[in-house]
Amino acid sequence: MMKLAIVTACPNGMVTSVLCARLLDAAAQRQGWSTSVEVVDVQRPERQLSQATLDDAEWVLLVSSTPVDMQRFVGKRVFQSTPAQALADVDAVLRRGAQEAQVFVATEQAAKQAPRIVAITACPTGVAHTFMAAEALQQTAKRLGYDLQVETQGSVGARTPLSPQAIAEADVVLLAADIEVATERFAGKKIYRCGTGIALKQSEATLNKALAEGAVESAASGAVAKKEKTGVYKHLLTGVSFMLPMVVAGGLLIALSFVFGIHAFEQEGTLAAALKTVGDRAFMLMVPLLAGYIAYSIADRPGIAPGMIGGLLAGTLGAGFIGGIFAGFLAGYCVKLITRAVKLPQSLEALKPILIIPLLASLFTGLAMIYLVGRSPASPTSSAPWAPPMRCCWASCWAA
């Protein structure tokens, strides 16, 4: 009975790796072969095949589209294939492997330690460029013989998160991001920054520049890098990226309510009315989210509360998206100003982010939205909570 070791690895996630492994294992079992299977998972190295199991196998079938440590297979008959080939015809891959597998010999280049790089890709929407840049970097790294691990921070959060061990062993950290990425876990490591577009179109140059030009960021240099990477456009895109899921969810829920009839939601108590209500409430949160995360991009977490309050006021006062954008930038820079200007004794410093900054920034942003963008408070004799809208001060100045 032939003994076969199957090792699969795919950079796009575990699904393809597991699918290839199961199909190959089933096909080998049908031929009466004895198999040992490993699905490469950098987060769980304990699951890899032991050296004794590899030594016992007659040959190794390696199905991979990402760099794999080949030193484990020195002296073994190895046949390499790709996930696409394996999924297309597993029986053909097994036949070719049994016939064409050759003893793997460690060359001088393979024996030499390959450069180790960890990378993060992130774009404002977390949909297209995030994963396209990651794939381009992985394919180029494989061609160059580099050891690369990529964490994609997409719209559903971080996929394939970098392990502390991978970060510790890396020669450099590549941040291919168009939005802010937390760098606390990379303290003391060399960091190279670029956009996802550069990483996608010039992946080889990006990897080589990262190895050659990566530098440890001190607090000062980190601040400079952050300043260079931020701006009005980037803050706006950060807000949009957090708002998009609410737009999609609200829009689809409202669309579902129309399935029962274009006016079905007008009948209270029906499912259509419930779907329309939920969708409308989701849309009500769009502008607050936009403003809140614009402020977050500018001033970090202390900016969220005043930004969302300003965004909610923008929606309530009929200022729409333009008002929300104004509120986000106003709240963000207001928080930054308060953070720098307000000096407290050390014993009271802890109150700044949870009391002083939210209170003062929310007060200033809220009043600015009411008196500059929206409506004025009603007079004491008015029965309505708000008086008719006053003319915006900008419009008054323009008319003057």
From TrEMBL:
It catalyses: D-fructose(out) + N(pros)-phospho-L-histidyl-[protein] = D-fructose 1-phosphate(in) + L-histidyl-[protein]. Residues 232-400 form the PTS EIIC type-2 domain. GO terms for molecular function: carbohydrate:proton symporter activity; kinase activity; protein-N(PI)-phosphohistidine-fructose phosphotransferase system transporter activity; protein-phosphocysteine-sugar phosphotransferase activity. It is found in: Cell inner membrane. Residues 4-99, 117-212 form the PTS EIIB type-2 domain. GO terms for biological process: phosphoenolpyruvate-dependent sugar phosphotransferase system. It is an enzyme of class 2 (transferase). GO terms for cellular component: plasma membrane. Its main location: membrane. Its EC number is 2.7.1.202. It is a multi-pass membrane protein. It comes from the Bacteria. Keywords: Cell membrane, Kinase, Membrane, Phosphoprotein, Phosphotransferase system, Sugar transport, Transferase, Transmembrane, Transmembrane helix, Transport. The chain crosses the membrane at residues 242-262, 282-299, 311-333, 354-373. This is protein-N(pi)-phosphohistidine--D-fructose phosphotransferase. The lineage of its organism: Bacteria, Pseudomonadati, Pseudomonadota, Gammaproteobacteria, Pseudomonadales.
